Amino acid sequence: MVTQPALQGCWAVNLSETGIGLIATPSGPEEGPREGEDVEMTFTLPDSRARVQVRGVVRWRHDPVERDEGGVTALGVSFHAFEGADGVKLKRYLLDHQLYVAVVYAEEAELRGLRAALEGHVRLRFAYSAEHVDTLLGRGDISALLICGRDEARAVALVERLAMRRAEADPTGAGPASDLSPRILYCAPAMPTRLVELFNQGKIFRALTPPCEPVALRQAVLQASRELGLRTEQRRAALELERNLLRERAREAPRLAADLGVANEPGFRSPAMRQVLELVRVAAPHRVAVLLQGETGTGKEVLARVIHRLSDRSGQPLVVQDCGTLTETLLESELFGHVKGAFTGAVADHPGLFVLADGGTIFLDEIENTTPTLQSKLLRVLESGDVRPVGGTQVRRVDVRLIAASNRDLAEEVRAKRFRSDLFYRLNSFIVDLPPLRERPEDVLDLAHYFIAHFNRTLRRSATGLSEDAQQALRFAPWPGNVRELRNCIERAVLLCNDDEPVCARHLPPSLSTGLAGARRQVRTGGARSLRERLEQLEKEIIREALENHGGVVRRAAAALEMDPVTLGRRVRRHGLLAKEP
């Protein structure tokens, strides 16, 4: 099926217009596409000779922990381009697609009742031998097996055979094969002892005694089929969430330290950010809802991760959702989940992010973009912990801590009647305002140096710090994009630097040249208001340049300036310039 790169022995477990789930048995962990890799696929639609060619990308891949113990590999592939009209072909097929149920060992007398009860609701496939069952299961679209007939020995042998195959594919009983095997129903006048044992072990989903009422039979078969669909979707969501968690943990430490300075020296110098971190340390251990307010790029999502990491929920999921990227209907479905058939395209039950975050934390960015209707539902979840999926009737209780973020002043949004006051008052019990980078220039160079060290590691570069003109450009830049803009500027500069070369102004984006010109103009013509202040600023810049040119050694800088080293050292301390003694 996966033709480039090749992956043998795979079958589909879920198919939609936007992607497909695959179960495969590769010969080794390196066979087949990796996560994030582009793939080309060709597959034949069940019950159709139509072939679909598509290009996509592997969104996630889950390999068994111990390959030698058996097991299968699960992949999720997102489609992004179809060959010719194959996209329309797939869409038409899915519109007509129904659940497939294999009826096994049914006698002639039973077929009439089965067809009357099930046809029109599911598509039936009939098998009269174990080999024929294998053929049907190899199609990948059978969601349930209904074993009929009065031959108890044959039924026992088939159930044990299927149970053994599932155990061989997944010896732990916790992997994808365990979740995604078709559900087995047994319909016979009596149930032998061995089948009772298998039923108690969970190998048989439901036991039915004929004659079955059509409605009861239909409900049992549909429940088995839909339960498999729900488990497939839950497994997909869990694997994707697990992948995201592992990826975020791998890069969390450098990002947190680099973006916020909470883990390594020199940390923050500005009083504003020191106060923010103190508030975070106070709020993190408690279940209180936190509202983060600040301009785009100030690090609200990173701060939310810090809060989660410092809380007692750090071992549980942190789920992130941007409320500004989806419509109200899609966002409601994403947050609270939906049941199959709730709307067009809802082909399976979807658990929702609040359910996936149960026991952990959910971070809702740009919460000001939610509608009043959705805000009322969020308030209900915060107050009661009850989540009801779209189109569903059952309510699930969850334990989730909410961290919300906004680019605007929510109090002003409430006064303008664009945000519900009751939800705001529920969120504002603990507000943390993140100052923009232009209001804390003391942090710019420290963050820049940390970013250089970070990108030297991740990009395998060897930039040696910041030149004087680069420092001036960074200090006087307006930073409308805040810390995110600074991070991107340094990443670009590190890539442009030669080996063992400092980051210079020419490596920075052209837009920052105005910052450098402004710095020189301020020193030359008077950003300060008095002659004394202007002379102090000029002296500071001269001393800084001398220290930079002599490796921070005071005695050497003093010799170059023809000054007494003790006098220069005193002025270095007065101006707050870091220096290294000889």
UniProtKB/TrEMBL annotation:
Q: Which PROSITE patterns match?
A: SIGMA54_INTERACT_1, SIGMA54_INTERACT_2, SIGMA54_INTERACT_3, SIGMA54_INTERACT_4
Q: Which InterPro entries match?
A: AAA+_ATPase, AAA_lid_NorR, Homeodomain-like_sf, HTH_Fis, P-loop_NTPase, PilZ_domain, Sigma_54_int, Sigma_54_int_dom_ATP-bd_1
**What UniProt keywords apply to this chain's record, in alphabetical order?**
ATP-binding, DNA-binding, Nucleotide-binding, Transcription, Transcription regulation
GO biological process terms, alphabetically, are:
regulation of DNA-templated transcription
The molecular function GO annotations come to: ATP binding; cyclic-di-GMP binding; sequence-specific DNA binding
What Pfam families would the database entry show? AAA_lid_14, HTH_8, PilZ, Sigma54_activat
CDD domains with a match to the protein in the record: AAA
Q: Which residues form the Sigma-54 factor interaction domain?
A: 269-495
Q: Which PANTHER family match?
A: ALGINATE BIOSYNTHESIS TRANSCRIPTIONAL REGULATORY PROTEIN ALGB, TRANSCRIPTIONAL REGULATORY PROTEIN
Q: What is this protein called?
A: Sigma-54 dependent transcriptional regulator, Fis family
Native organism = Cystobacter fuscus (strain ATCC 25194 / DSM 2262 / NBRC 100088 / M29)
